[in-house]
Design brief:
552 residues, mainly alpha, 5 strands
């Protein structure tokens, strides 16, 4: 797994370096932002590859290597300027490692995939990894398939969809810490950037280790914001901003909608407006190369039903909550897994001070913050966009503004700086650690925890077993690294079931309480069938309401 992840980062660098190398940067900035831009370009690469080659891991490597070789041959990179201090580099790397370690630990506190989104991403990734399926309506399109494809390509190398989802998701989210530093530095200098990233890493409402496509899309905000600053200094790189911004629009619809609003805000308040406008139009056109195809192939109604357009009219997972002042000031440890709430007392104090120590070019951040808070309180309006999910996107301007205030205060006294760090850790970092290392709920799709742990026990058998689970949907098996065999039972008696399993070359047969809940069989008949089967099979796992049998 470690080698695969290192290879993944190198491939991202190779994808991004041909585009980033012309910018005036320090060596560390060039490396980190090449990875960030590579991560943003990857959806377009996957979309183009879909029409030319099979979706295999080596295809992406081929694109990356060809791009790197051509860029080195035809273009001489700009000389590197402005170096990040070693102290700041060390702090940044340590912060990234800690963030990644906490999210990774939290993801493996429990063996199962929590809630629902990770389960469905597991199925999509498994299909890509094993069958080369790229655009299959049931699992991928018309919802953007790029997150599933990315994980699926990695699973082709690791063979383990559960661990790959957990590790890759934690890595992608944590890379955002690195990207955010260079984005913040474009607007407020190195000291403010370090403090902003510290706030971002500790603030509870900025992402969790929850596995869904928004993790990738949210991380892509930072390379795009970084290029906002670069376009101001070099109008000619507007096309690069367009390419990177298109990645946000392609990966996840809600994140794309939020980022479109941020882009327009920045465009309205900064020059060069012509270059920024061209970048915005270019990004939309690139994204439409995919979205236009999807709308043409599936129709408006089907696309809207899959991408969550109902969230605009109240049909979302926010539960009608309207947040009070205390929900912002204090970070809760009893909160949503996909969008933790609250900033923490110290962050809130710094945010207040940032109004006093206002940065002259950050009007757009205040506008972003104000509109974001209105969006968070969207449940008071008849039309809104997934209010609870906006916590993550509001945390971004909060981190940048608070970080600038922290830098100003810390310059006046080391003791003030130390007090701020302690306050951030206690009021924001501790709640974030607790939220992200708690055992998260199983989700409503599972009938019980007995069923969850029963299916999770399949992971101990190694991946790729052929599993017959006639009462369960495919995702219960696939989300635990096994191959689901579609085998409806023709007659509920032991001899028929055993013969059917052997005929299909099944390794494991599973019977769970879904058989009864779905009305396929009653409790007494199921117990009799299982009892008779155990005479010719071996029990792999057994919980109340769940039994897995090894078929000889």
């Amino acid at each position: 797994m470690v080698i695969v992840l290192l290879g993944f980062v190198i491939v991202l660098f190779c994808l991004g370096y041909p585009l980033v190398s012309r910018l005036k940067q320090s060596w560390d900035e060039c490396f980190v932002m090449s990875v960030g831009v590579g991560l943003a370009v990857l959806p377009l690469v996957l979309w183009v590859a879909r029409w030319l080659l099979p979706l295999k891991w080596w295809v992406v490597v081929l694109f990356a290597v060809c791009g790197l070789v051509l860029s080195l041959y035809f273009r001489r990179p700009e000389p590197k300027q402005r170096s990040t201090t070693y102290a700041h580099l060390v702090m940044l790397v340590v912060l990234f490692v800690i963030h990644f370690a906490v999210f990774l630990y939290g993801a493996f506190v429990y063996t199962y995939l929590e809630d629902s989104d990770p389960l469905y991403h597991a199925v999509g990734a498994w299909k890509v990894a094993r069958e080369g399926v790229t655009f299959w309506e049931r699992y991928l399109e018309p919802y953007p398939p790029f997150y599933d494809i990315l994980v699926g390509l990695l699973v082709q190398l690791t063979g383990d969809v559960v661990d790959t989802l957990k590790v890759a998701n934690a890595l992608i989210v944590s890379l955002g810490v690195l990207f955010a530093f260079y984005a913040a530095r474009e607007f407020a200098g190195q000291d403010s950037a370090v403090w902003s990233v510290l706030v971002l890493a500790l603030i509870p409402s900025y992402v969790s280790h929850f596995i869904f496509a928004a993790s990738w899309a949210t991380t892509l905000f930072w390379p795009a914001l970084y290029l906002f600053g670069k376009v101001q200094k070099d109008h000619g790189v507007w096309w690069l901003l367009g390419v990177v911004a298109s990645g946000v629009f392609l990966v996840q619809p809600i994140a794309g909608a939020v980022f479109a609003g941020v882009f327009v805000l920045y465009l309205m308040m900064h020059s060069p407006r012509a270059a920024l406008a061209k970048a915005f139009v270019f990004s939309v056109l690139l994204a439409l190369s995919y979205w236009g195809f999807v709308f043409a192939a599936y129709g408006v109604d089907k696309v809207f039903s899959h991408v969550g357009i109902g969230m605009l009219t109240g049909d979302d997972t926010s539960g009608g909550v309207v947040y009070g002042v205390w929900d912002f000031l204090f970070a809760s440890t009893d909160t949503r897994i996909d969008a933790p709430t609250g900033w923490g007392v110290m962050v809130s104090v710094l945010l207040g001070l940032s109004f006093v120590f206002r940065h002259p070019s950050w009007r757009w951040l205040w506008a972003w913050l104000a509109l974001g808070i209105v969006g968070l309180e969207g449940n008071v309006f008849p039309v809104h966009l997934a209010p609870h999910r906006l916590w993550t996107y509001v945390a971004m301007p909060v981190a940048l503004l608070s970080g600038h205030a922290a830098a100003v205060c810390a310059r006046r006294s080391r003791w003030i700086g130390l007090l701020i760090v302690v306050g951030l850790v206690l009021s924001a970092g501790v709640p974030k650690f607790v939220v992200n290392t708690n055992v998260w709920q199983r989700g409503p799709e599972w009938a019980s925890y007995n069923e969850v742990f029963g299916y999770a026990s399949l992971q101990k058998l190694g991946p790729g077993l052929r599993v017959m689970a006639p009462c369960a949907p495919e995702w219960k098996v696939v989300a635990n690294n096994q191959v689901w065999i579609d085998a409806p039972i023709s007659a509920w008696n032991a001899s028929v079931v055993l013969a059917q399993a052997k005929n299909l070359s099944v390794d494991v047969a599973i019977f769970d309480e879904s058989c009864i809940l779905h009305g396929l069989i009653n409790q007494s008949v199921l117990e009799q069938v299982v009892s008779e089967l155990t005479q010719d099979t071996v029990i792999v796992s057994r919980n109340p309401g769940f039994v897995a049998l090894s078929i000889p």
